[in-house]
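Name: Polysaccharide biosynthesis domain-containing protein
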Amino acid sequence: METTSGTAEPVPGELASVAHALSLPAESYGNDPDIEMAWAMKAMQHAEVYYKLISSVDPQFLKLTKVDDQIYSEFRENFEKLRIDVLDPEELKSESAKEKWRPFCLKFDGIVEDFNYGTLLRLDCSQGYTEENTIFAPRIQFLAIEIARNREGYNKAVYTSVHDKEEEKEEGNHGREKGTDSGRAEEKG
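Structure predicted for Polysaccharide biosynthesis domain-containing protein:
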């Protein structure tokens, strides 16, 4: 893989090539490790952007698609008892779960762009994207669960946690500044 000036970033021609490759049907490839790596990198970038978003904006007010209302109502109609704060992978990946999820997902073919695109989904919504807390899921499954988590207040834990840490850091900095000023005053006196 050619890179620019010793960095790990691909050159523009390579980006166009990867973008073109990712737009072709999956049947064109088999198990090409370069394509799998490109998909994984894109999924990870998506996860990082999404986590930053729910960390910086109150998730209750986020709109992820133009059809959030439809996704949410269909999701809760089909999966009204699904626990979304901490997901059980069996309720997403088992054969019986796949049979229930498949018709739901297919409803959004042509409505949600790249509805079947692979994304990373956190199992425990109070935690970040770690190897132990992440599974691979179709985009519409990610959207349905994350829209529900946002609307039902579960993702607020991430937003609150980040903002609490920032406040503690600010308070710590202000305390050090005051301590430094009072120390100087004592030296003078």
